Amino acid sequence: MSAPSAASSLPAASAPGRSIAAWWQALPLTAVFAVFFLIPLALVLMVSFWDYNQYEMLPGFTLKNYVAIFDGCLSRNEAGDMCVTVKTYLSTFKFSVLVWLLTLVIGFTVSYFLAFHVRSSGVQVVLFVLCTIPFWTSNVIRMIAWVPLLGRNGLVNDALATMGLVDKPIEWLLFSDFSVVLAFVHLFTTFMIVPIFNSMMRIDRSLIEAASDSGATAWQTLWNVIIPLCRTGIIIGSIFVITIVMGDFVTIGVMGGQQIASVGKIIQVQTSYLQFPLAAANAVVLLSLVLMIIWALTRMVDIRKEL
Amino acid sequence: MADDLKDTLSTAATMQRRSLLKGTAGILATGIFPAVHAADPIVLRYLGTAVNQDKAIAEKFEKDTGIKIQYVAVTTDDVTKRAVTAPNSFDLIDSEYFSLKNIVPTGNLKGIDVKRIKNADKITTLFTKGEVGGKKVGDQGTAPKKVIYLEGEKSKKFSATPTQFMSLIPTVYNADTLGIRPDLIKRPISSWAELLNPEFKGKAAILNIPSIGIMDAAMVVEAMGIYKYPDKGNMTKKEIDLTIKTLIEAKKQGQFRSLWKDFNESVNLMASGEVVIQSMWSPAVTAVRTKGIACNFQPLKEGYRAWASGFGLPATLSGKKLDGAYEFINWFLDGWAGAYLNRQGYYSAVLDTAKAKMEAYEWAYWMEGKPATQDIKSPNGDVLAKKGESRDGGSYEQRMGGIACWNAVMDENAYMVQKWNEFVAA
């Protein structure tokens, strides 16, 4: 990727053949991107302005789907509750932030250990592969495995009762915010480990020696040298984790006992009742929010430059 | 240049070969190659929920007729979605009657000619007249008799009086009620109101399929004496508000342990003891019992919420496949499948033929509500009931005669779904 600087120094007109070749090279990916991403996205956007009835979509232009989403959101209702959309987004944000924080701390710690404490590169590789083992089974299986563990009569409660620590089973272990966050962290910490480990491995070790030679404490080295140099990895990991949690409905459904709101779940319910335009409008709102988050995150680091 | 030419030529050749292949496939598909086609067995793509798609039924049918059944298993909601959006993706649909209000107006189903159905006149009166044993049953909601006849083969409208064309030929049906764990509740349960009884705080569950869940909620609201609906299956906005408000209040008090959406979820909740009382499907209760765990499909004084599903034909089906589909429907009503389903706790559409294929003691247990004279086994050989036990809810006439309402699609469906999301988010 040293090409951009070289290419930009050449006047574009001097190498017309080369630039056409570059266009051709970019074409396959562009085509795939267009067919599987841009066109469907445009369709979703279009449908979100359509009307619908019980069994069909009615092409046209109406804002009623968007109005329906934010219906009653400007004021609280008589019971003092917020509207469903706001409540759902707040719940989704809550999970995003919690999961992001936990995966970041755990992911960073694990990567730090792998990158700086494990000396032999062979052991490093083995341990790194170990981190990816959970990915050998499907998401849903990894999730469901928690259920018999955390249930009212599950292993954890059994163990606690046998040790005499509790006399009644702990109810909040399963089908609660706790179990949702736990499952998310279990599922997605690897998405943090991989990019952070990757950027840590690129840190020039002499910088750390220099820091220690200049009398920096371990904390100072961590805060002033390692974390800034890992920024790219942290941001990439954060994008993975936040976008997945924002759109998830399966984990929240299974681990939350189906009674915790998530935007994805609402979209799913609406599509199953053939309310495609309404679901499309919801998807557009969700997508815009996620894009804004990603935009904000990428402001903090120039990913193209860092890679 | 020469290379270019060669390229062009070979491309042209490929193109030709490709279009030839395509053409052949097209001809094969239309059935103009009779010899080849006859050698090919007919394959019927059967769209439905997993509940009705039994491997044994497909195997037996193929053995009897040589026609293959290819199951396409999706959820209740997705059956409707596919029927509306992709009617060419199946050759036979197994849908619930309440979904017809969404499917029939699209014109994607064709009326089934009852003249081609051998046992059509033996289909239980519950469907054709809304009667069991000569007595009218509740018809709130989308009762099958309201939607079973079409005005014509290509009609998008239901007929109130019998015609030659049926929208669906009934396959299985049942009346749902609450499932309970008698070993954990330890007292008799007799009313829908118990679902929201604070005594079972954190140990209750309700269906998270909005159109069905709200009917269960309505049964509870009526049982608690809060409100009496003119038609639980077709609520006004105000009635929906009231029903959802009741649910939300209960949820905020921590009444529900979980909501469930599919069969296995409900089985697991009950079997693990996470939940001791929940709205439940009869075969799910059977599934809990085969694990050796006590579970009742509890009859309640307010009655049952009934459902029924049946076979329909897509409008585009024709030729051999159409004949094959008719053959399957006829075979299905002929007894073997009916007996098989009756033994799982469902009810079959034609009772006489099913009776002929069941043992007398089985019929007495499943259909007449009599105590079992020997161990009752499921089709896979698991013991479902020991000698001397009798079926929850009694006989066919007692159970189906106690229907209070049918699964439904409301006129205010969109509003209902929106409010249901509010309940989930509360």
The total tally of domains of chain A equals 1
Gyration radius of chain A (Cα, Å) is: 24 Å
| Second CATH tier, the architecture of chain A | Orthogonal Bundle
Q: Any idea of the CATH topology of chain B?
A: D-Maltodextrin-Binding Protein, domain 2
| Contiguous uncertain segments of 5+ residues of chain A | 1-13
Largest sheet of chain B: 12 strands, mixed
Spatial strand order of the main sheet of chain A: 1-2
Discrete helix count of chain B? 18
Spell out the helices and strands of chain A N to C.
Answer: HHEEHHHHHHHHHHHHHH
| CATH topology call of chain A | MetI-like fold
Give me the secondary-structure category of chain A.
mainly alpha
Cα-based radius of gyration of chain B, to the nearest Å: 24 Å
The fourth-level CATH homologous superfamily of chain A is MetI-like
Based on the coordinates given, report the CATH architecture of chain B. Answer: 3-Layer(aba) Sandwich
Q: Based on CA inertia axes, which overall geometry of chain A fits?
A: globular
List the helices and strands and how they pair.
The complex is a heterodimer of chains A (307) and B (426).
Chain A (H helix, E strand, L loop, with lengths): L2 H7 L6 H32 L3 E2 L4 E2 L5 H6 L14 H34 L3 H12 L6 H6 L2 H4 L4 H8 L14 H25 L3 H9 L4 H12 L1 H17 L2 H6 L7 H10 L3 H24 L3 H4 L1
Antiparallel strand pairs in A: 1-2
Chain B lengths: L1 H29 L3 H6 L3 E6 L6 H11 L2 E6 L2 H10 L6 E5 L3 H4 L5 E2 L1 E2 L11 H4 L2 E2 L2 E2 L7 H4 L1 E2 L7 E2 L5 E2 L2 E12 L1 H4 L18 E4 L2 H14 L13 H16 L3 E5 L2 H9 L5 E4 L1 H9 L5 E3 L5 E11 L4 H14 L3 H7 L4 E2 L2 H6 L3 H7 L9 E2 L5 E3 L10 H6 L1 E4 L6 H13 L1
Parallel strand pairs in B: 1-2, 1-3, 12-13, 12-14, 16-20
Antiparallel strand pairs in B: 3-16, 4-16, 5-10, 6-7, 8-9, 8-10, 11-14, 11-15, 11-16, 11-17, 18-19
Helix pairs in contact in B: 9-10, 10-18, 11-12
Pfam families (chain B): SBP_bac_8 (PF13416)
Protein name (chain B): ABC transporter substrate-binding protein
InterPro entries (chain B): SBP (IPR006059), TAT_signal (IPR006311)
